[in-house]
Amino acid sequence: MYIGFRIPLHSVFQVLVPQQVPGRPAEILDSKSTWEDPAAYDCQAADWVRRLAAPFQRYEDVDGDIRSAGPRV
To answer: Is this prediction's pTM over 0.70?
Structure first.
């Protein structure tokens, strides 16, 4: 972790993504901004969330806090 840097949760994948890293352009850290078509990024992200979530649907008895930590569409 970089002290003093803001590291918010990604709104879809629920992972920490730094907003700046020394020696790297900030714009590459926001994956959506690297796409020419932001709507296409949203579509692809939603598809990945469905693909990632599908195998875990068989574990319905998992605590809600654990389920809510996963990807969101």
So the answer is: no
